[in-house]
Amino acid sequence: MASIKPAGEFNTAYEQDMRFLRNPRMIILAIIAIAVTYYLPNLSPGYLGPTLNLLAYTIIALQGLNILTGLCGQISLGQAAFMLVGAYASALLMIHINWPIWLTIPAAGLVAGGVGLIFGLPSLRVKGFYLTMATLAAQFIIPWLTRNIAPEYLGGTSGSIEVPVPVIFGVALNDPVKFFYLSFTVLIITTILTNNVTRTKLGRAFVSIRDNDLAAELLGVNLFSYKLRAFFIAAALAGVAGALKAHYQRGVGTEFGYGLGESIILLGMLVIGGLGTRLGPFFGAVTLILLEDVAIEMGARLAEIFPDQSAQLLTSFRPIFFGAVLILFLIFEPRGLAHRWNLIKAAWRLRPFAR
Amino acid sequence: MNWILVPQQFMTGILNGGTLALIALGIVLIYKSSEVFNFAHGHMVMLGAFLVWFFAGGTSQEASGMPFALPFGVAVVAAITVAVLVGLAIERFTLRPMTGQPLLAIILVTLGLAQLLEGTTTLLFGTQPKGFPSPIDSSSVITIEVPPINGQSIVFLDRIILKQVLVVTFIVAIIAAVIFILFFRFTRAGLRMRATSENHELARSVGIKVPRVFGMSWAIAGIIATIGGILLAMVSGVSINLATVALVAFPAILLGGLESFGGAILGGLIVGLVAEMVKASTVIQVRNSAEIAPYVLILIVLIIRPEGLFGRKRIERV
Predict the structure, then answer these.
(1) Could you tell me the domains of chain B?
(2) Angle ∠(B52,B295,B28) on CA atoms, nearest 5
């Protein structure tokens, strides 16, 4: 490697050190990887198209949850409800004010973030399990509100409205392949943003709150303000994810999957991927979404063999697999796949001296 | 407020609250002994109801093809036996390896358990809601005449109609709760469990086998959950939704205070009451809010008095 120097010559500046870590080769590889990912849904529009879109918005929601739960240590059971807020916000802005998609998505984030602030307010007085209950309350109250208030806008008791196809540069994103250009672009932006959060003062403050809130306060971290910021970021990213989900599914409402179950699955993905790590959301979402596909496929195969029990075979493997995998991970690999990935990377770097 | 309905809703609410109180007791029991917030308790309740339905061979209409057709009482005993085994297995295989893990891990394990139980129940018993082989006819009612005040009845409806099944479930729930509290207070096993809930290390040092106490509390929680499931199912039939219904027990225990059995019972009654009283409102949105009223209530409780009515004031305000 070009960066290995003869003995006696040392790096004398930070930039020289960083050049070792971020060389042009890596930047080129990253660009190629991004380009390949943009092209990926074209390979099999029937499967990869929908799956990659699902992955993209799930990962965005997970990145938000990762900041709140993984970095700041506040357990949230309401992430799916905040997605619902963002989904409605984006849909309504597009339907009634005709805002373009590149405005409605950030707006959805802001609206959902604001709602997240409201439900983060109890964090002034309570923590741990009590705060979890406040987010659980959000998970029940928000979907109820969408069904019971402003029926002319939110769809009323039946609880769903149609969402228009987003148009960007005159191109209607009306199939999964085209939509992925949008969702993947948003994912890249949120990845950069969340990585910056972890690297800056904000992220350090979150971690200090998670590790010991009393010590953090003594160090000058304003707990209430920072916890609210974590809630805002988590809910805002959930709102962005919800906006993408709504435009992708072209409908929004409580029956489109914004329930407590989804919130639990998001938490589970985060743990399986690795709490508080940058790669965690990616690993967790990919693992569990693949697992869900396996469960559905397995249920469908078994339903062909036992047609009498087809209804229960089709629905039951998903929760069983999810529950079992989550419990196994918590017992045997509580630091998640990201930790395992780092171990493998370290082993590869030390090869052949260590396994 | 639609005052005519108030006495009726008040009574119904209290009666519904009885079952909730019993379910809440199970969660408090687990929390007190092992500091685990059992989010799977609602699913244990649901499983209990399904087990009784299964052992009793379903209702008479759907009896064909069921492997068991035990009398109701025997079916209850069989279901409780299975529920105890399930409780013991849960403690032994999932929560004991998690001892000492942070709160998030514990909560997630019970959430994972909840999903596992839901999936397994669906796989074994199907997705369709079932009729419950209730020993009491759900259509029979008890009518209480309210004597008019000063010879004229203006404000309230002149009678309260109570479903017989609700009255029975309330009585059973209260009896079960009282038996449970007596057990906790006056038996040696109960003493051991109280000692463990005070301090694990001290309990160990006086010769109490703490893991065994954990196992026992999960077994008892299984019993309580099954009884709660039977009572819920007698009112509303057997379905996966029972787990969501039982989730309302969480607001109840927060309201009552996490460490207090009396608080759990009172919290259950209050939550049941609030959920029914909103139905007496004249505003349609408020009337529809029965399902979320408990959660609105806990948001208020969390902001005003986070330790609940009888909980220990241990929350650090940081």
Answers:
(1) 3-304 (1.10.3470)
(2) 55
